[in-house]
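REVIEWER CHECKLIST
Item 1: Sequence provided? yes
Item 2: Single chain? yes
Item 3: Sequence as submitted:
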Amino acid sequence: MTLRFSVLASGSTGNAFFIESDETKLLVDAGLSGKQMDRLFSEVSVDPSELSGILVTHEHSDHIKGLGIIARKYQLPIYANEKTWSAMENSIGKISLDQKFHFGMEQVKTFGDIDVESFGVSHDAADPMFFTFNKDGKKVALVTDLGYVSDRIKKTVEGADAYIFEANHDVSMLRMGRYPWSVKRRILGDSGHVSNEDCGLALCDIVGNETERIYLAHLSQDNNMKDLARMSVADVLQTRGITTDLHVTDPNTPTPIHEIGLSSSKLR
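Item 4: Structure as written out by the authors:
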């Protein structure tokens, strides 16, 4: 086994990502209730008591709603940076000291046979960061909740075997939608969320011959549609001669577990 993963849930109602290897099982975020998290684990046949730890990207409720419940129930260590710990401690309930660990920005931490690299993103949270997961020359990149994709981020995540990448909204739907202008401005701003088109443009710069799958993530339920996101991103990729089947994530249903290296299709 190289790396296997499932996007357990993705969207404004809750986010969770599972990745494993022969030796290690990791959860990134637990943004749904404890009961919902257990259901998601069951649907992909994962025993949460076997998790090596939970990594936290940032303190927004759609990323930490069930964090304290799951950590206490299964006695799991939690890894977050210092500012995120300070921002979320009052929201997750009591966590024992032996379950609290620091994972700083722009660091590489090894969990068993997986090297995890953290990188900062531009988002309206205390100190948000996301991750790449690396094992035996294979890489999975998790990139959501960011207002724009900087050159620094592109350099960190380029050439991954799989991407879970934000395609939050269609700009026209957002502009014409029911949200107040203050919320629209936040989403469209540099600390908000990436649009379908900007997702496609960023992917054009980072996918490589080794890239076998792209999962579009954190789709807005009000300002996007699955088919629209897939079509919009595919159209941008095709302008660069990149064709692939794009996979779209769901806020309630996990993606089937995928093992890197078993896909028959590669990009380009």
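Item 5: Key structural point noted by reviewer: The longest helix spans residues 226-239.
Item 6: Recommendation: ____
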